[in-house]
Task: structure prediction
Amino acid sequence: MLDSALEILRLQSTGEASAVDVTEKVFESIESSESSINAFTHVDRDLALATAEAIDKKRRAGEPLGPLAGVPVAAKDVLCTKDMPTTCSSNMLRHFRPPYDATVIEKLRQADAVIVGKTNMDEFAMGASTETSAFGVTRNPWDTSRTPGGSSGGAAACVAAGNVPLSLGSDTGGSIRQPSGFCGVTGLKPTYGRVSRYGLVAFASSLDQIGPIGWSVPDVALLLQAISGFEPRDSTSLDREVPDYTSALQTSDLRGLRIGVLRDALEADGIDDQVRAAVHDAMQVFKSAGAELVDVNLPHSEYWVPTYYVIAPSEASSNLSRYDGAHYGHRATELDPDQVEQLGPLHATYCKSRGEGFGAEVKRRIMVGTYALSEGYADQYYNQALKARRLIKGDYDTAFTQADLLLGPVSPTPAFPLGEKVDDPIQMYLCDLFTVGANLAGIPAISLPAGLNSEGLPLAIQLQAPALQEARLLFAGAAYQTTTDHHQQRPNL
Result:
């Protein structure tokens, strides 16, 4: 089991370990667990060791080092990397090698992190169980018969398995927080625009956000610090000063902090009793640390999932239209003669290429989104969803006049068995019941480990904050982890 990021930095600074030593340990860990977990789509031992050796050389020469010097990091396979494939776990991009790095990858390199590989995910980030990947299912390190969550399942699983201390995921409707909750690690979705999306392969452009996953709040804060900031190549990037996130972790005294408890979420149908109990236990922890608990309601929360599942597929339909076999992505080589005769060679190529390149869930969402945007239906579906989104954002604005943070569950249940929901899209979509609201409103949210259930599966709680208040989330999350040891529990692999 690999040490935390902060411990790895300490070991290197004292000379007890080198970056090469740490990187060698990473690949030993991956080799021992990958056959059972399948967290990665690509690893590059030689490239990682070369990066580590360069960092050690800089250290020996007394040259300045970045804040993540020698720390191994994995990146979700939706982030462009010029020296590794970027596949989005799809046959459509199976052989794609980008000519450039995503901004967050550039920032990792500038911080002297060691990027060890790309992690498995639901195809084009569409899913909640990492079962839609063209590279096979990822399994939960706590119980390999269960899902690690999705779509950033590989990013969460490789941290939980002890392969790396940190990873990058993306979150469109809960895809960092839900797998973090299922895998017993800490995951944060930043404010929309806080972290540049340049080089992130788009799913739903008004919802997508990149964020950090790690064992603890201090490690997550370290990675968030490295990747945040304005990026002119991303038109949605916010030109706001980035605070010192680590300075927010200096105290566990929460006096003066108002935490709003989402009672409607706790009383929702289908929520597991032990998930509910974990939130109630967290309430007592926060209260003991000095926080004031207040009840808060979000009146339009029942519309979160239907609103999300109109907007996200609509944007996906538009974004994925470029993958036609001519401009981008997989191109079919053997065409159906009847289809060629009926449609012509160009349209037949489009149809065959998209049919071969996309999996079933991606096709389903493209069709839903295309229908919602089609003439005669856009007002009925897409435009109505945008109006509902404004109401949802208004609910959050009102709630944050009553409370500084909002507390509730991450997912209605702990990690469910693989295969249980993959053929039932509605049940799979309901996994996002408590997470999509933050994406629709563009606010930051964090998933924190909250113990284990009676079956030994991780439980989690979620905190949400006003826009650009990641420091407040980290402050409260660190206080919670100071007084609990849930984040220190590890699976037996």
User: Anything to note?
Assistant: The first helix runs from residue 5 to 13. The two ends are 9 Å apart (CA to CA). Residues 5-256+448-453+481-488 form a domain with the Amidase signature (AS) enzymes fold (CATH 3.90.1300.10). The chain has a mean pLDDT of 96.
